[in-house]
């Protein structure tokens, strides 16, 4: 899997899981301990989270870490 595909999957998974829980980007950011701007950058494929940030996001969304790499 190429880097761009990984970034795309992570971005889409974060957005889908956030919307399922009816959270705004700001609410997710607060729960995960990151900035709203960073959530926006992740969802728009402008950045890729570190494993630590990904774990915090998954904890906030109540999903397992591997969910970020699963195909829809």
Describe this structure in words.
With 72 residues, this protein is mainly alpha-helical. It has one domain (3-65): lambda repressor-like DNA-binding domains (434 Repressor (Amino-terminal Domain)), CATH 1.10.260. The chain has 4 helices and no strands. It has helices at 3-20, 25-32, 36-43, 51-61. α2 (25-32) crosses α3 and α2 (25-32) crosses α4. The longest helix is centred in the N-terminal third of the chain and has 18 residues, at 3-20. The chain starts with a helix and ends in an 11-residue tail after the last helix. 24% of the residues are buried. The mean pLDDT is 95.
Provide keyphrases for this structure.
mainly alpha, 72 residues, globular, 434 Repressor (Amino-terminal Domain)
Task: Record the SSE blueprint.
Layout (H helix, E strand, L loop, with lengths): L2 H18 L4 H8 L3 H8 L7 H11 L11
* C-alpha geometry: globular
Q: Structural class of the secondary structure composition?
A: mainly alpha
The low-confidence runs, each spanning 5 or more residues with pLDDT under 50, are none
CATH superfamily annotation: lambda repressor-like DNA-binding domains
In the residues, how many domains can be counted?
1
What is the terminal separation in angstroms? 15 Å
Largest pleated sheet: none
Helical segment tally?
4
CATH architecture: Orthogonal Bundle
Beta fraction of the residues? Answer: under 5%
Which CATH class is shown? Mainly Alpha
Overall average pLDDT? 95
Helix content: 55-70%
Element-level helix/strand string:
HHHH
Radius of gyration of CA atoms, rounded to a whole number:
11 Å
What fold name stands as the CATH topology?
434 Repressor (Amino-terminal Domain)
User: Care to count the β-strands?
Assistant: 0
């Amino acid at each position: 899997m190429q880097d761009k595909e990984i970034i795309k999957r992570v971005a889409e998974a974060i957005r889908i899981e956030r919307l399922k829980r009816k959270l705004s980007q700001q609410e997710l950011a607060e729960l995960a301990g990151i900035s709203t701007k960073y959530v926006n950058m992740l969802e728009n494929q402008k950045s890729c989270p570190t494993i630590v940030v990904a774990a915090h996001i998954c904890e906030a969304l109540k999903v397992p870490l591997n969910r970020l790499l699963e195909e829809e």
